[in-house]
Amino acid sequence: MHELSVALEVCRIAEAQVGSDTVAQVVTVALDVGDDAGVEVSNLQFCLEALLGEPPFSNAQPVIHLCRGDVLRLAYLEVDDDRPDN
Amino acid sequence: MTVRIIDVREKIMARNDEMAAVVRRRLLHTGVTAFNLVSSPGSGKTSLLERTLDALQSDIPIGIIAGDVQTQNDADRLAVYTNRLVHAVVTGGACHLDARQVQEALGALDLNTIQLVFIENVGNLVCPASWDLGETAKVVVFSVTEGEDKPLKYPKMFRMARYAIINKIDLLPHVPFDIDLAENYARSINPGLRFFRTSALTGEGLDEWFDFLRASVGEQCST
What we know:
The complex is a heterodimer. Chain A is of the alpha+beta class.
């Protein structure tokens, strides 16, 4: 259930990283999620797809890398600078 | 298409953890001990707190933060036992309390007149394990009607807790619950757990819990 809270925080961090003017150019949001992170991965994927498909994002794709331990972090962003800012 | 990669590597819970650190410093500064009670729904957290307030509130000034998904029922029950503010946090569907909510709740409590705070978390053995609230320690409560393998099913919660209360022991003659096996399962997850066996209904085992709380007043945050 708290996957939505996690997804919202991912969006906040991503927007803070690239700035609100550039957030629509984000094409990939990559996360590292540990098997002891207390997160249901498919639920998190669902929440991220829902949020990243809406403004201020523009259909960015979540990529979740599974790992060991309680890791839960935003690993990297891919930004397409040529993507039109709608 | 020109794609550039921004290396972030930021903990998603970082902002919550920062707020938890603020809460922890605030508790440390005021010398207040805070226990975060976590459990599945119906384990008896509120009943346990009712008995605790009834027994100790004349000796120890106690503040309560009562989290619930949808109602203030628990806060209303607890308010009967104290003249102090019982701060209700209705999460509106969220499955856990977070550090921001606790920080705001502490603002409503007068910490300078309190020595002990109980945070009654939302009934859920999964999500609250992942959220640091800045508490002194987590206390996991489970009851004899839940099955002795709860620690194996929810290992993170038992790993994050420092204390475990096995409640409703008055029902032991009526349910197939091996209490020693339950403790062994929990110790296999967290060897350092300290246990209390209680019945909030009959009062059995509560004296040890009360003595522990009296001794804990003033304990500084270390988790």
